[in-house]
Write the structure tokens for this entry.
Amino acid sequence: MKRLLAIFLFTATAFADQVPYAPDRRPDEGEGPFQRLIIRAATVVDGTGAPPLGPVDIVIEGNRIREVKSVGFPKVPIKPEGRPKDATREIDGSNLWVLPGFVDLHGHSGGVEQGTPAEYVFKLWMAHGVTTVREPGCGNGVDWCLHERDRSAKNQIVAPRIVPYILTNERMWDGGPIDTPEQARKFAQFVSKKGADGLKILGPAPLFAPDVLGALLDEAARLHLGSTTHLAQLGVAQTNILQGARMGLRGMEHWYGLPESLLTDRTIQDFPTNYNYNDEQHRFGQAGRLWKQAAPPESEKWNAVIDELIKLHFNIDPTLNIYEASRDLMRAMRAEWHDKYTLPSLWRFYQPSRAAHGSYWFDWTTTDEVEWKNNYRIWMQFLNDYKNRGGRVTTGSDSGFIYQLYGFAYIRELELLQEAGFHPLEVIRSATMWGAEAIAAPKAVKPEFGVVRAGMLADLVLVDQNPIANLKVLYGTGWIHVNDATGAVERVGGIKYVMKDGILYDAKKLLHDVEMIVQEAKAKEAKK
Ligand SMILES: [Zn+2]
């Protein structure tokens, strides 16, 4: 209730019951598309897992990459012969690393409860290099989501490409509960007719009955819809991840249902007898004790589950960052970007509350954090093994909950994949080419972005520090280092430019806009 009141205070003038659409893109927001832009002498990380390469000239015409040409050797003057010519605009890339635009496979576009306008969320993503977002649910409504998707596609707003995956929930349509095979098929048809890309399967519990889920996935496959799941504890006793994948489920979010696929000495999680799913400390506290109940790493069962999921081309989108407060609450709570970039309404939404999602700090203990640290170790080993055996692991953020801020949390996700054992180049591949593949695969088409290569759409990240040496330089707040010439402590990095669909945005300017939105909200509240 306290939360509702607080939200009302902030949103009364801004928005009462719907998240405001992003404002139209102003003429001074973004430059391009260009007739023929050449980024000169850059170092390219192409997104395939290949090592950095430079100096390279990148030619962009309109919204396409036309040519990516290696033009010499590091620290050697570049010969003019053979370099691409006739630029209508040039960027000196000699101090820039160029990567494909990032794909966030789990990006909620804010919500009324958070008091986060679309402009705020979209600019935080773009400022962190996210040029494509899979909207896992479209919680602001199907039509809202499609409306912003279309405006973004036409570059009428400053936003990533939006790929809507509709939540399997009765409030998303007028067709009633989704609890029988017939209803499940109808829902998939509704999503397809609307023109969305896929399904985010979260509930209700009857949907996880094998006949209902089977019908849903069968219809989804027929309609070339993608599917992914947050396989909540309410459904997993009926169908776990492996069983779902066998029915045609294309991928998963988070990790729920995975340890359950690895149980050998029980059939359900070892719930305490006083467990109540709607008590979120029960839910998240006990989840932190789940991986240790599964078959241990490298065991026969462990390997068999990994191999079968890979054979089924199953996508794992772990969203490691969104649970990080569980293993280190203070780190998540005191992250340095909150001061400047977290809206006061969002900050209130994060505070402990029995009535809000992801605010489960009723009595969080050292023991809970230690359990979660151990939980991560096994989970991360699973992800690394999955990747090493040939499986696809992607990057999603799930920001707006549990102290995780849009954009910033996406970069944290990259760091956590490195912690899981990924080489930074493997991390970037997960963030780019593999994300694009996960989106394209259900439609049986080839990705049009996600790799810096001729013919691809021009979605790019440009940064003036080496992100392979240190992923932290991708944070909007940059990173501290000591200048050895002066001895001064400096902030370096932060993405410099982000290009989406051939339009070049100054990433720092986008972040400044976000800062202004936050300042304005704080000033408004101070007056009350
Ligand atoms: Zn989510």
